[in-house]
Amino acid sequence: MTLQYCTPEWLEEGARLYRSNPNLKKAMEKLSAKTCFRVKAEPNWGIEKDMIFGAFVDKGELAHLSFLSEAEARKQADYILAATPQEWKKILRKESKFVADFMLGRITLEQGSKVGVLGLAPYSGTLVDALTQAPLQFPDEMSPDELANYRACLKQVRAGLAV
Prior knowledge:
Blueprint: E1 3-4, H1 8-19, H2 22-27, E2 32-39, E3 51-58, E4 61-67, H3 70-76, E5 79-83, H4 85-92, H5 98-103, E6 108-111, H6 114-131, E7 136-137, H7 144-161
Parallel strand pairs: 1-7, 2-5
Antiparallel strand pairs: 2-3, 3-4, 5-6
């Protein structure tokens, strides 16, 4: 089953697969952090406005993996990291490394401490693995009809978050 990037189905399946994989939990057992990821708007990709999703982990247990409004993210997150969808695609396809892109400024820190984010770095590969257990389709790989449906899906997600 191929999932579309930055959709509720992708996050739901990622959470389900993470929770069913003891190796992922074990690799993250020393991590407790509430991290949000901003996917910057990219109208050509069907992302009309920024999207934010959070991955909240408590000692390896995934407590939360879903979209949040700006206000919810600011209130709940220890860290908010932002990048273009193209940059996140490179990370998720393992064409780039999180730490290198963070240090080069391709991923920016909007909330939290830089030292704290660098403490998350050893876990970044495991989080990428958790989010890419099922094949992903990105907007630049979609047909015009798929992209139109994708755009409508994201609009519905934003409406549900009141953003």
